[in-house]
Amino acid sequence: MGFDVAAERYARFMGRYAEPLAPHFADFARVSMGQRVLDVGCGPGTLTRVLVTLTEAHLVAAIDPSPPFIEAVARKLARVDVHTGVAEALPFADHWFDVSLAQLVVHFMTDPEAGIQEMIRVTRPGGTVAACVWDADTGAVAPFWACVHEIDPEAQDEAFLAGARMGDLEQMFKKAGLRKVEPSGLVIRVTHPTFEDWWDPYTLGVGPAGDYVSSLDDAGRKALEDVARRRLGNGPFTVTATAWAARGTVA
């Protein structure tokens, strides 16, 4: 999947949506000063930066399987404890964190259930585990996949991924043994001044959407671009995106 890319490419593609989402998600997870906090699947550090402002930088840890992303976090947030690794095998001691968060990550874990169990393991009893995932139908990339399906109805989008439907994360958290599980829908709005501002990042090869565009020949890419421009217009236009979130308490 297209996440082994330069941090700047990811920031152009998803940062425009992840950045406004991050403070809402951190607030939902009730992150506060003095807490020891883990950012699982941190990417180039969008949520990590917010966590640093809410607690102290040396209390924040961040992990991601992509070396370019981790290098970007280490370069920009020198006091954060950064690691290259996966959610399913977190390199941290049991009960180490007060809050463990995964923003826009659970659906890309190789084994989401194992990833959530690892987040629980490294979080202290009474601490919080929280995650959020874009909604399949109204998430940040939903307008793109709607355009794809007009041309290619059988294209496999991100709707089948874990957590992408209302109630998915809540059910997963309860199954994992978390207590006091609370779901929510987090909504952000991003205005694109031009069509190109929206479209060009999809050509950078990031994530499933970028993989799909990269798989097209020139004619197919032009056809998809034409459909998207017809549906969305030349701009400005606003993308309203919902992310499903859940938080739970470690027993």
From TrEMBL:
One of its GO terms (molecular function) is S-adenosylmethionine-dependent methyltransferase activity. SUPFAM superfamilies: S-adenosyl-L-methionine-dependent methyltransferases (SSF53335). Keywords: Methyltransferase, Transferase. InterPro entries: Methyltransf_11 (IPR013216), SAM-dependent_MTases_sf (IPR029063). GO terms for biological process: methylation. Residues 38-130 form the Methyltransferase type domain. Pfam families: Methyltransf_11. CDD domains: AdoMet_MTases. This is SAM-dependent methyltransferase.
